[in-house]
Amino acid sequence: QVQLVESGGGLVQPGGSLRLSCAASRSISSIAVMGWYRQVPGKQRELVATIASFTRGGSINYADSAKDRFTISRDNAKNSVYLQMNSLQPEDTAVYYCNAVYLTRTYWGQGTQVTVSS
């Protein structure tokens, strides 16, 4: 099993930045893919970004809405994945969830709220 704990959400003004962190309960070097998703009330959870393990080539995938503004990264030594979000806009307001795919199972964190508002 994998437990995921997100942190770093909060209130930020348009154009601002936030860095989300996701700490995993086990070594993330063994986790095939980790990622960030987001969800607003009444809508489906959507992909923000994913990053594969080094053994899987470390490939990174971004949603179109995240390209050029968000950066996903992973630190195997800290068993953590990060999402650096720049140039935030009100439409980025959502609950952001960390995701891990491990041994064919999918795990989710509890989510962290990001609110972009002036």
The string of secondary-structure elements, in order, is EEEEEEEEEEE
Mean pLDDT across the residues is 95
Question: Which stretches of 5+ consecutive residues score pLDDT under 50?
Answer: none
Strand content: over 45%
Give the overall silhouette. globular
N- to C-terminal separation? 40 Å
Derived structural class: mainly beta
| Helical amount | under 10%
Major sheet, described briefly?
7 strands, mixed
- How much is the radius of gyration in Å? 13 Å
Give the strand tally: 11
Q: Can you count the helices?
A: 0
Please provide a written account of the structure:
This protein is 0% helix and 52% strand. The mean pLDDT is 95. The chain has 118 residues and is mainly beta. It is globular and about 40 Å long. Strands 2, 4, 5, 6, 9, 10 and 11 form a seven-stranded mixed sheet that branches.
